[in-house]
Amino acid sequence: GDSVTQMEGPVTLSEEAFLTINCTYTATGYPSLFWYVQYPGEGLQLLLKATKADDKGSNKGFEATYRKETTSFHLEKGSVQVSDSAVYFCALTNTNAGKSTFGDGTTLTVKP
Amino acid sequence: ETGVTQTPRHLVMGMTNKKSLKCEQHLGHNAMYWYKQSAKKPLELMFVYSLEERVENNSVPSRFSPECPNSSHLFLHLHTLQPEDSALYLCASSQGHEQYFGPGTRLTVT
């Protein structure tokens, strides 16, 4: 079956540091890939997405590139802020089955 | 603002109570989901409804009973819960490949 493996947390960074959260996947067919973010006390929100190989999703300074050859979708941000502290989930939707699979989530804490 | 609302936001119930969680989506989507999110555990998909038909039930105990009366509303009826059922219950909807989540109901079973 489909699976998503993301970097274990928690991750703690200082403000303005560079962020990478690794995500790799296993899926049949051609999945769409997503990063969701969950701020404290809230539900998950879509952060960015990519629907085909070599697509780059971006939003709020975050980026991720769909790499089919390495089955990866790593999340990056050049300079994190305290307000980026949240839990980040990598996910895929298998377009054949219409089913979504989520990673376990990575908790990011950014300190001033 | 996600277009998916959940009520109540917080619920405390005893093991013998019966309560219901409500989810409403204002996005015109045709699929709705219930997830359970427990501390230090992965997100667990509980139920999936597509066009008001249940298409997935991931071995959820019968003390959880979903209901989807129309494409905009989804309920989760709860009865005879256990303390380990305490968690954040998230509702989501979708039309394409991405899902839109509500803020969740924080459930505590005493």
Task: Please sum up the structure shown.
The complex is a heterodimer of chains A (112) and B (110). Chain A has 112 residues and is an all-beta fold. Chain A contains no helices and 12 strands.
Strand content of chain A: over 45%
Bulk shape of chain B: globular
Provide a count of the helices of chain B: 0
Number of helices of chain A: 0
Separation of the first and last Cα atoms of chain B: 32 Å
Kindly report how far apart the N and C termini of chain A lie. 41 Å
- What is the 3D shape of chain A? globular
The total strand number of chain B stands at: 11
* Helix residue percentage of chain A: under 10%
Beta-sheet strand percentage of chain B? over 45%
What oligomerization state is this entry in? heterodimer
Order of helices and strands of chain B: EEEEEEEEEEE
Radius of gyration of chain A: 13 Å
